[in-house]
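Entry 14. Ran structure prediction on the chain below.
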Amino acid sequence: MVKKRWVIGERDPVLENHLSRELNIAPLVSRILINRGIKDVLSGSEFLHASPSSLIDPFLLNDMEKAAAFLIQAIHEKRRILIYGDYDVDGVTASALYLEFFRKLGVDADLYIPDRVSEGYSLNEAAIHKARSRGFDIILTADCGTSSIGPIRLAQGLGMDVIVTDHHEPPEELPQAFALINPARHDSTYPYKGLAGVGVAFKLVQAITQMLELRGQKSEQNALSSYLDLVALGTIADVAPLTGENRVFVKEGLALLTAEKRTGIAALKEVSGIAGREVTGGTIGFILAPRINAAGRLSKAETAVRMLTTRDCREARGIAASLDQMNQERQRIESRIRDEVREKISREIDIDKEKVIVMASREWHQGVIGIVASKVVDEFYRPCILISLQEDGSGKGSARSIPRFNIYKGLEACSDLLDRFGGHKYAAGLTIKSANIPLLRERLSAVITERLAEEDLTPQIILDAEINLDEISFPLLKEMGLLPPYGMANPEPVIVTKGLRIMEPKIVGRDHLKMKLKKGNVYLDSIGFSMGSAYNDIVTSGREIDIAYTPELNFWKGTYGVQLRLKDLRPADGNR
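Output, structure tokens:
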């Protein structure tokens, strides 16, 4: 097992007790809220009881009123709208949302998503010329466009109006689009910055709907809530923070995904073997999103949009089956590349001394290297850039990072070495001349050395509290049920309990560690997924252990019981 630093924050007992009393929750739950940055009663109540009534006025976003009014006028004038999306799940869901919304309003709307390999991310000039030749008047972007200065200038020059809806980090100079809606704009005063691309798309649809209602054109068949399954999918898949508005979107959207209101979702759940089951953030991250993403990685992302918008069960099942097959092929390619990267790391890199992993190959599929980079970061805890070398001497790369290093800002410091780049704190894409790759590795390593302390390059577990086993109860776990959905900025609570005796340890399934843990007169079941290596390292030593875990209710053989899902463990006398 990789050694991790256990980090527990300072307590504020006075605030803990205040929130506990005013919100009628256990002190442990109030402490978890404080650790999430929630330090007043109003914020705590909104977090615990998130509802659509707390959504923010969409017109607080820059250019929103201008864009919504323009699009309503365009609808009346029957102008043609091209939705220009991105090929990841965020872009696919944003595109599907727009396509469904405008078609319900009778708009002649169509879709264009660039090919990941041959065209790359965001707007490009060839696609702009194609849109003009097909007679489109308006281009509406979904999850892209903030950095597309040249292509947008071309589109405007050809007589097309461009409205950008995006959430990616903006460059210093913004493109001269008719409207640019992005909460990350440097001049934005929108109170919530964490929207994913599909969240920004929803805000535009919300604004248009409100404007139409003010004009007496309310449409029940276009109810805003019906799009929240798409918003939840894209928000979780893009690892956006599950706070503020996103928390509302995801909480409502997960219920719709569970209910399978959308034909394409029902088909995708069926082919994934989870028909009729509850959808959680984990279901999206590990089951649904990879299949939707597979279309943009290995084929055409429009296929996934079609699945999400069709009402034809046969078509939906056919596309879902195709996506499942693509995902299996993606897994095979990913496994091969990951093995090659590991081998190169062992042969070429002293991981204890290197600050960043930058590698390139002609054999690596451009559509898959982003996933591999994420897994390399998880395994080696270093920022990672993997680059697919092209025949023309350039390289197209995917970058992923650790929590303490903003990879977008890191690439910004190396921008003179790059042809193009874009993204956000944890993930970015780039284009680079192959001759500059060694220079990028050297420069980025220097930037990381300058900006991070050595301990930032050691994985850590953030602990919410230390408690005793006898403090865990059914009422407590019921209250903790108010805390999901979990994800970025709202992680699962992790608790520490020290000095436990091990009883009945065994390996079950595929390398999972199962055992009973005892202290005093209390003992509880625990499970550590993929933690079999700890059996020989720690468990068989006979010593007492400290554990970091998430307590949960486990349904087994018709009854509920308390189970501790282990995150890490160590000898009780082996503090790190």
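The longest helix spans residues 313-348. Will compare against last week's run tomorrow.
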